[in-house]
Fold:
Amino acid sequence: MTGSDRLASRVMTLVNGLRTANRWIALLCGMVLVGAVVLIIIEVLGRQFPALHLGGADELSGYIMAAIATWGFSYALVERAHVRIDLVHARLPVGGRAVMDVIAMASVLLVAILVASYAYDVLAKSVARGSRSNTPLGIPLWMPQIIWFGGWVWLTLTSGLLLAATVILSLLRRWDMVEQIASIPVETGEVQ
Amino acid sequence: MIWYVSIGLAVLLALSVPVGAALFILGFGLDAFFSPMPLMRGLGQMVYSSSDSFLLIAIPLFVLLGEILVRAGIAERTYATLDTWFSWLPGGLVHANIGTATMFSATSGSSVATAATVATVAMPQARKQGYDQRLFAGAIAAGGALGILLPPSINLIVYGFLTQTSVPQLFMAGIVPGLLMALGFMIITAILCSIKPEWGGPSRSFTWAERMAGLPHLIPVLMVFAIIIGSIYTGWATPTEAAAIGVVMALGIAAFYGAVTWTNMRAALLGTIRTTSMVMFVIVGAYFLNFALGATGLNRALSGFLEGLGLGPYGMLLMIVLMYILLGFFIETLALMIATIPIVVPIVIGLGFDKVWFGILLIVLIEMALITPPVGLNLYVVQGARKEGRLSDVMLGAIPFVFVMLVMVGLLIAFPSIALLFAPA
Structure:
């Protein structure tokens, strides 16, 4: 095993770890979504049977949506599920494709960094002002917002690591590995 | 500035930057170069308010509903039943493809998912019974496209969210055009296969006993559809609530067929989160770009420019339709729809057209984009499930259905009431 083999396999181990972590996070998000179903159903039933009436399912479901979509961004990223147009990409040789994959990953990192930093302002303001939601529940807004902010930080971390991995593997000319991590999957019936 | 946005978008997409990220970056650029005030300060709040939404959570719920029904084997049973009902028509099983896709569309909010499901079930039959696979595969790609027109529809939810249009009205407005298109697909299949019987396959007859025996398998799908649409139409439930009720019903159906296993549920949840996040990344990016476009006055500049052309409302509408057909050849459909809504819809409203009606027209155009090469996701999906032959077969087979969609576009423009009949403003 040469030094570059060792480096490449270490990078792949890291990426696989990242994938596993994101899969567990996505599964957790899915279970939280089921929780939202339960809340909404109770709310609907509560209109017929006042004893069941809790209120606030709409508000809580909104928070859940913000949480699962944001934390899911990273899962979609490791699964290469984000929509990319492969009109030019598909016509390039492997090296050219890898360059585009690096650009694509870097663009996600850029967006994640910017959104995460401005998301921090939103969160910090809610904490500083002690803002609460303008509803009967009166939930302190920092609670849902910190989960949402965390999702963007996690995307920054995930896309940063994937970008580093893509760059290293491209420099090592391990095109098959670059493809596994960052390329556009060929469309099959398993897309969605 | 108009050129900055259009060329910038084209370059970023050509570079294969993820569409959501491309929309964000365009927004950042508008802020840096054109905005009199710092838009970035609104970035966090924009992203938060577009994610924290009781309406948008309907998207993962409808996706989950479809994921569960697929794993309950609903599509196989529906297909077998519709085979007994429709296979005597010229074109045989092709009608069962269209029928199954239509039924499945009525519980699924996604065209790609519908096409993938029907293709997996139907393509092995084409081989077994010696069909010419072109029209057969084209019918699945086109039938699958109905998934976003017949309610529930993820694309209509997104349209409603971004343009602040009532989602219940949009859902109701999609029903008649969706059913008319399904009917049009069957008619053109029957006509083509009467003229050229070799394009279809053997017509087969079944006894009435066989036909009746399959009917109970259609009940679950029809029931889910009826309850979702009924509860929304009567105002008893919001789209999101109807989606949650649908998920519970789907679970009940899956349990009835013995499909509620850990493996199935895990796959359904993961698939749901993946699709939802993919869609949401584009939506959140579009929401920010929408804000940036509004704040820099680009929308007004563009409307002014177009009004200056003096084309009149219908001339403009024709231009817009042509633009979607053209872009639809090359751009992935959800991206096409979301990226253009902030720019196009204000113009269309300014011309005096109805928002609900335009939503339906847009969806039909988007459906066309799904089945026109070189970039038509449904074509790839069907080809992926075929595992043989060439992509160009599916492309050729889809052409008659593109024609039906064009007719539908014409009908919608000539008779807007097709869409607005059940969706009074």
Q: What stands out?
A: Chain A has a mean pLDDT of 91. The longest helix of chain A spans residues 3-48. The helical segments of chain A are 3-48, 57-78, 94-129, 142-171, 175-182.
